[in-house]
Design a protein that fits this description.
Layout lengths: L4 E5 L1 E2 L2 E2 L1 H17 L3 E7 L3 H9 L4 E6 L8 H15 L3 E5 L2 H14 L2 E6 L1 E5 L2 E8 L4 E6 L6 E5 L17 E2 L31 E5 L10 H9 L3 E4 L1 H5 L20 E5 L5 H7 L4 E5 L7 H4 L2 E3 L3 H17 L1
């Protein structure tokens, strides 16, 4: 009999990160295959809403560390709190989103718990009683298969937007409080303030929809038409390396081999020709729309839908149509 599959949810900016709910889909499939159940854990302060959401989306039980010391992310405090949750639940598999926080937290927890770890996974199955994970390497040009020892704790971080958010069919569960007390050792690292360098805009690595622009935008001001479309779609704005090097957008929004790898449900490339370096960072997108005046642009070979048009004329019209649809 397989033990529970535990999802460590991420509480950020007063709400549960969507990637945490996506992990519940992967956990549900593993639990069904192994005969276990899906449980969830969450760390933070005043996290009742997070526990309710995890229960509604499939967690049979939720274990919470709700403490003032966890109000802001602190790697030492959160790692210890996560280990306390794992010890209480005693799962066989632990999943958490491969977000900025998850990428920092997962190896710390794995080291403390003497567990196996696979990061940034896109496929998870049970094989011979243990977890088998598939993770992209070399910017998606190859894949690495990781097989775990079934006798040990197995931890995997899941790439955002790889799995869907399960339908909210369950009932909110009453979270089980996990005893936790801060220690002086945690004071070695103190989080005084968390500042978002990109303002209130979504990060491209975690957005489900991305509208990206290339050097064809000509200047930073012209990116406004992309922001208008992205806001209507509740998405993020990305950029090619050429656009970032030209100063049109900060490098934090750069998509590509030397930028960020993204896996959104929808990627809209505006005025991007499709250099190999850029394609390496977004080829994992579920649906790709390319808008370019050059019908021979390489990106059309990868795109699901292509529009041969001037982006300065097409994108504002596209945004207007989205607004009309939302108005209905």
């Amino acid at each position: 009999m397989t033990k529970d599959v535990l999802v460590l949810g991420e509480w950020r900016d007063g709400k549960l990160h969507p990637a945490s709910l996506q992990c519940l889909s992967a956990a549900s499939a593993l639990a069904q295959a192994g005969g276990g159940r899906v449980t969830a854990g969450v760390i933070g302060q005043s996290i009742g809403d997070a526990a309710a959401a995890l229960g509604k989306h499939g967690a049979a039980a939720v274990f919470a560390v709700d403490h003032a010391a966890c109000g802001k992310y602190n790697a030492l405090t959160y790692a210890r709190a996560a280990c306390d949750i794992i010890r209480q639940v005693d799962p066989q598999i632990v999943l958490l989103p491969a977000t900025f926080m998850g990428r920092d937290l997962a190896p710390r927890v794995a080291a403390r718990m003497n567990a196996g770890l696979a990061t940034d996974c896109t496929e998870l199955v049970l094989a011979n009683g243990g977890l088998k994970a598939r993770r992209p390497i070399f910017n998606g040009k190859a894949f690495n298969a990781v097989t775990f020892d079934a006798a040990r704790l197995q931890i995997a971080s899941v790439r955002p937007n790889t799995f869907p958010i399960p339908t909210a069919t369950g009932a909110a569960v009453v979270p089980t409080a996990v005893a936790f007390a801060p220690t002086d050792a945690d004071a070695r690292q103190v989080t005084k303030e968390i500042v978002r360098t990109g303002g209130q805009e979504k990060d491209v690595t975690e957005a489900t929809i991305i509208v990206s622009g290339g050097r064809s935008l000509k200047n930073a001001d012209n990116f406004k038409i992309l922001f208008d479309l992205a806001h209507e779609l509740d998405g993020a704005v990305g950029a090619s390396r050429a656009a970032c090097d030209a100063g049109y957008q900060p490098h934090s929004r750069q998509v590509g081999l030397t930028g960020k790898t993204v896996t959104p449900q929808l990627y809209i490339a505006c005025g991007i020709s499709g250099a190999i370096q850029h394609l390496a960072g977004m080829r994992g997108s579920r649906r790709i729309v390319a808008i370019n005046t050059d019908k021979e642009a390489p990106i059309f070979k990868l795109a699901d839908y292509g529009v041969t048009a001037d982006l300065f004329a097409f994108v504002p019209l596209f945004t207007q149509e989205i607004r009309k649809l939302k108005g209905h």
